[in-house]
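Aim 2 progress. For D-aminoacyl-tRNA deacylase, the working sequence is reproduced below.
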Amino acid sequence: MRAVVQRVSRARVTVVEGQTGSEVPVGEIGPGLVVLLGVRTGDEPAAARYLAEKVAHLRIFEDDAGKMNRSLLDVGGSALVVSQFTLYGDVRRGRRPGFDWAARPEVAEPLYEAFCAELRALGVPVATGRFQAHMRVELVNDGPVTILLDSDREF
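Predicted structure tokens for this construct:
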């Protein structure tokens, strides 16, 4: 599993509906983290647990001295979790990404849901996008702070 984690002052996700292109809000948070989550072929529930624990305890919020020393749990923030299979896009051979490493939807969706459930179990309020939908994500990156996480610890 891979995650792009952004510290935000606010964020929201809308789903683009059918032919009209109208947008329907599905998730919104105030201060907290936006988590773009990709699931890889071969990922297991342990990866969801590991990343949820990492996200909840990642010390990227400022303390009273202005140092990044507080976690999402410490500051009482929320998470907006959006599935994003393109995190496993491979562009090493050419210009069009290949997605062979991305898990099929029937495998990815339960692991995406498991990640959200693990975050909730840790006490994090979680809003989500809609799996496999065309979404628009709006956010105000606070800092900016953006962290890359990988359950295989590749970075």
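The chain has a mean pLDDT of 97. This observation will guide construct design in the next reporting period.
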